[in-house]
Structures are given as C-alpha cells and as structure tokens.
Amino acid sequence: MNTSAIVRDQVLSALPQAQRERLAYIDFRLYFLGELRRADVADRFGTGPAAATRDIAQYRDIASENLELDNSDKAYRPTEEFVPLFDHAPQRVLTALSSGFGEGIGEELGSMVRCEFPIELTTPQMSTLAPITRAIHRGKALRTTYTSIESGCTEREIVPIALVNNGSRWHVRAYDRRRNGFRDFVLTRVETPVLLENSPILEKEKVDQDVQWNRIIELELVPHPRHPRHEVVMMDYGMPDGVLRVKVRAANAGYLLRRWTIDCSPDHRLEGIEFALWLRDPLSLYGASSAHLAPGYVDPKSDAKITSITAM
Questions:
Q1: Which residue segments constitute the domains of the chain, with CATH numbers given?
Q2: What's the Rg (C-alpha) of the chain?
Q3: Residue limits of the DNA-binding transcriptional repressor CapW C-terminal dimerisation domain (predicted)?
C-alpha cells in the first residue's frame, strides 16, 4: 500500500460511521453505475441538497482524481484513474444492484440495473419467521407445530440457533426437545410458533453444544476429471491454481455440495456436464451428518448409518 493510500485510510477511519456510509455510497455509484448526482445522495440519506454537496466535496477532498463533473448533464463521472476508496464486498454489491441499496419499506426499492433472478418457488411466512428470529436473537425456546414426512404433524419444543439457506429453501437449525438433538426444520413446515418466555435453556441446548454446527470442514474442489474443458471450470470458479478451497460447517456441507452438483464419489464416477467439480478427498466429509446429501458420496464404513439431519 502506497503512502497516499495509507493517508486516505487514516482520514476515512477518523470519520464518524454515518459520514463513512455516505462516502461509501458515493464511491459505490461512481464505481458501479458510472454517475453521481447531488440528488442521489440527498434521496438515499434523506439529507438536504446542501448536506449532499458537502458530502461530495469531502469525497473530492480525499480522492479528487476519482471523479470529474460532466457539465452536459451536471453529473459526476469516474475518471480513468478511478480507484475505489472502499472495499466493496461482492455479495453486498450484487444485492444492492439487484434489490436496491440499503433498507427500505415494502416494495419501495427496486434493482439499480436490469437484473433477473431464479424464480422462488418457496418462501417462509413472515408471521412464522419473526418469532423464530426473535428466539434466535434472545436465546429463547419456541413451541410450534411441525409437519414432517416421517412423523406427520406434531407439536415440538425447539431452541433455534440459526437460519440457513441451502440454496433452494430456508430452514432453522434448532435443538429439538422431542428428539434430544440438533436438527434442521424447514421454515415452510413450521406453523404457529410461540415464544416460551419462561422456559429455561439447558446447557445441552446452546449453540456451542452443537458439534456439527461448530465443526468446520475444508473442502478441496478441483475440475472434474471427466469435464471436457478444465480451463473453463477454473475461470468459472476463480481457481487459477486449479483448486477451490471452501470452508463450511459440517451441518451444511451436504447442502453446499448438492446445490453446486459436486461429484463426491471416490472414483469421480458421476457423468454429465453438470458435474464441473469433484471433491478431491471425499474422506474430508467423514463424520459430517450432512454427508449423505452429497452427490455420489459413499460412507467409508460399510456398516455406518448416517442419520438424516432434516427433521423428517
């Protein structure tokens, strides 16, 4: 990092959080949309035109070479020498571009550029989600009705510890008092959850007791030996050295491997262009309760039985 960059970082770190957020938004619009107007800042943060002018002036004081005024339409444009002041996390950038920047009410926010999503076939009810997230945040138990394939409709007491999106649906990781263990509950199958304010949480029900949740596995993924274009796979997954290393919770490893259609067979026997990646060491999944979800996975112990992690 050069001296000017160090000075910039020192100046930015000394500013109040609210000021940094406004400067980050200016940086974002210049970088990803290629234009900035005073009204953009004023509308986003609910400030007046004079305050927006001061924010832009402060950005120019810190990085004058990053923007120039286009007098034809009174908009600032990024210069050819533009270097972003902030590290913009890819996931947040894509979320902002596709769903709007910041928090909004109802349907006010729209995409910042034309964007298309896969159709969501299943989403949880907000009246179900809210008690669950309150329970996670406050460390409380819930009483709920849950419908599973195995047991049908039953009443459960659960202690939620986290929400998980497996790529196709949401579930809640929770301690199940009925089965005395941690399980995954599909949110769309949860009905009428009620917070149990006066139900004490036992030590065994706390998140630090969930071995599968706390165990982190490192997976080494490589281009599938049967794939016709290894160089394309390496480009798609950003793996210049030919290996993609991913760290994932044991409780969620099977979900990830299934979502991305990764061949986990010991002899990479699965065929089809959809199998772009192969798990180089299938033994890395050993002991993970979600391993049975991984395409092609074979339990190295022939007599081992892997218990389903979904509350069936």
A1: 3-86 (1.10.10.10), 126-211 (2.30.30), 215-293 (no CATH)
A2: 25
A3: 216-282
